[in-house]
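Troubleshooting log. The previous structure file for this entry was overwritten by mistake, so regenerating from the original sequence record. Sequence copied from the archived sheet and checked twice against the printout by T.R.
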Amino acid sequence: MIKLDNVNKFFFKGKNNENHVCKNTSLEFEDKGLNVILGNSGSGKTTLLNMMCGMDKFNSGTITFQDAVFTRYRSRSWDKLRNDKIGYIYQNYQLLNDFTVYDNIELVLKMNGISDQEEITKRIAYLLEIVGMKNYEDRLAKQLSGGQQQRVAFARALSKNPDVIIADEPTGNLDSKTTIELMNILKRISKEKLVIMVTHEQALADFYADRIIEVSNGKVIKDFKNTNSGNLSV
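Regenerated output below.
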């Protein structure tokens, strides 16, 4: 589904402070499973994640997303792919605080061409039940706890039924109980969809990942199937 061939990314290329943040990276992702990109802060893991979903440019190499092949950055093509195919979960939720839970999800559905209000209401109710937020439709986002906001962010990412879920440190601001609950949701999603998650937490990778990709100083240093993956109990 997603393939990187000898991809390179520089910051300040050709200058004295040039930083080679992604070094000749080649990776291939299948159409489902929980893939964890693991690394310390500054290792290049988020840059790698952003390039493979068109949120950041690359300097050389090839990125293939399904049938689309990119040898250079094309913003319009990536914008369409992200709109149609990718659900993105952020560490800081990125909800509209003065909007209700319903409104936050409805906005994404309408942006994707769903205008029938009955269908929108049905989808939102279904999504909120999946993430454990049933009957929270009318609550303002700013009235929710951090864990509740991230659950809504999960629902929003799933609302357009994307082929790929991209999660950048999705549990970074959450307590351990909520982290386990939300990781179990991601694990279930990964049975049917490709999930690519960035984290610096080794324990999460060890318990949940089907595949672990370790990144250090802009290079993939390990890439292996995780035979110990499973679900943690709350």
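The first strand starts at residue 2 and ends at 11. Archived copy saved in two places this time.
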